[in-house]
Amino acid sequence: MKHQYLKVSIWACFALVLLSAIVQAQHSPEKKYKQDPLKMDTVSKLFRKAYAPQAPKGAPNVVLIMLDDVGFSTASAFGGLAETPVFENLAKNGLKYTNFRTTGLCAPSRAALLTGRNHHNVHMGHFTETAFDAPGYDAYMPFEKATLAEILRENGYNTFAVGKWHLTPVLERMAAGPFNRWPTGRGFDRFYGFHESATDQYYPVLWEGISSAPIDTALGKHLNTYLADKSIAYIKEQKKASPNKPFFLYLTPGALHSPMQVDKEWIDHYKGRFDMGWDKYREVVLARQQAMGLVPQATKLPPRHEKIMAWETLSAAEKKVTARAMEAHAGFLSQTDHEIGRIIEFISNIGQLDNTIVMVIIGDNGATKYTEDIPGEPEGMEQASREERAKAALRNIDKIGRKDFKGDIPLGWTQASNAPFRLWKADANAEGGTHNPMIFFAPKFVKQAGIRKQYVHLIDVWPTLVELSKATVPQSINGYAQEPIDGISFAYSLNDAGAKDRHTEQYYETGASRAMYKDGWKASAYHKLGTSYLDDVWELYNMQTDFNEQEDLAKKYPAKLAELKALFEKTALRNNVYPLHETWFPKSIKLRISDSRYTDEKPPK
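Predicted structure:
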């Protein structure tokens, strides 16, 4: 009996090893030949067809970039005051999409982007760190729903993932694996980056492939520089080995997620520029956006949030430290833009830029609400007055945004950098959480630069790039029969500014805050932490005339609200949105569909 069990165990282990190998391999079945009628053939025959898939002749390279925690009004390319000349140049020679949407949270946005499916549909309803046993939330992205990298690799592309991944289940991020849900198991030939939601910019925890990739921290090199260096190296190696083979680079810097860290020269570049304060910043940027044609001329700013103090009421010390924090934030984005520019310049220098699609998504969600109160204040001052804390922070002002800084900008600045929208990251009900800028540069496909206002979502990127690359979507990948995507290609809009929207219906949900968009109308419900989602109040907005959700029409059009709420329920069930849960878990981990009250515990700091 023992020997029989041992045999079964050995075969089971062998099967697991074989399955792991299959999952990470390209689909390459045994070739079938017609029987040669000749018994003997003294003339050699050429090997006509390779096992490896070949990309269509002239297939474009693809560079897909997504930044982290960047508000709609931060980058100069979209009216912000943080200089992004590389983004501006790409936009000047390409397209600006002003009606582009994310999921409102980082891991869900990345899952939706890479798979072309809604985030709950691929089991990524929330963070990988908060996963639980429900089909929309267990963080195990199905192999039946292939990533863009898996599709392009099956069509003859080399594929590289560089930067933040955040899609591997927590218990599988270790050096012992399993590795089938690492980037190299989901279609990427090469991976250089980190698994978590964030890492230090000067002391990062990095992996290359499935191996730890320690760096020499004594060099003082910034993570963005490492990522740019590695991207260039991967492309250079590939083009040297196979000049005509296209590549797909998925580049995801940790910027601008906390910790906010960058070299001093980038911070000093903005010295004094934000002394105007966050109230004035919103006014200045909105005027710039209106002049650039990025938002409707009638757009008005929402009121300053109740948790944010008027800039003029801050003390002199607090104004100095908070302005310095925004200088660091802007410097961080400018440095990110610069390093991305090095990659674009390299692609241009090797003569590949005209045959490259560069897509820049400026933020995986809106600016964060998980921010500093008074940046730079020392620990242990909770009982001190606000002025004492500000003065203590002022003594540390030179450390704000530097190597050992662990914080972020204050809430006043994140609202300002989200202008003209309401609320923040994780607020899936509001445009401030889900409305991000997107730049599309593709000389081969875009005839004339301009602005596009079509409604586009992250899930539309996958089908668009598949269409433009003329890739064939296999019915089965690595033995997994493929299921339909949710996205709709926006290639129709590239050369037609007036084209009618094709993506007309989209749901949103994270942390029980939710929304339903259809044909220009949007119903939404903000969920207050610690209350029952059944008590959430639904609002209604006409996005065709109310770009930034300023007039709630719920009472005026109750039938329309009821229609959209019913549609949300139908869509939520189809996408495994239930059970709803909050953005943090108390120790008891109460996960009820209804009446999920957390009155006895407070969320962690």
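Summary: The chain has two domains: 61-376+386-493, 512-605.
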